[in-house]
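Hey team,

Sharing the Cytidylate kinase run so nobody has to redo it. Sequence (223 residues) first:
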Amino acid sequence: MTSHIPIIAIDGPSASGKGTVAKLVAEKLNFHYLDSGSIYRTIAYAGRLQNIPLNNEALLLKVLEKANLSFKNDHILLNGKDVSEAIRSEESGRGASEVAVHRALREAILGFQRSFEKSPGLVAEGRDMTSVVFPHAGIKIFLTASAQIRAERRYKQLISKGNPANMASVLSEIILRDERDLQREISPLLKTKDAIEIDTDTLSISDAVDNITHLFSLKSQTS
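Structure output:
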């Protein structure tokens, strides 16, 4: 697949900062933004509302078929209801990781994800944006950080939102999600050969954003 529309694809593990970075890059370039993880979170959320086990792929597919999922001004709507905050819970995060292992489910949302590829450009973030969804992306980034640093960020984020959190539990959950993402048979998290790795252990969000927009500027000048 080839496209004249510029795409910046960003992959990385949980709590690596890719969501914040991707959104800021999109705002800076005035590009469209795709948070692919929110799709899986919404499917998990919808499944739980109907008491569907998240390991039941067939029933989850039926949920997806009947669901009206849309993005509007940074809000995620499920059947017309804004679920943007509801899907940001740790439970929905765990659920997203569980439903993401289903091959048919991933294939079913592929077209929806690719529909975000529109002018003037797209910044897409997730686990398989560079490898599966947008392998033709002009710029591929693998944003990472140590499990400890990511757990500290997630812990602070939860506390700041008034959610109860335990540092040891958050770290354990980060490690568990890493294992699930890296070891799943379908579209595992990986750094593609043509992706540029950015480690945010000691790098600020603004510096990461500047690095990526600079890469885009250089790419635009040479293409």
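The first strand starts at residue 7 and ends at 11.

Ping me if you want the raw files.
A.
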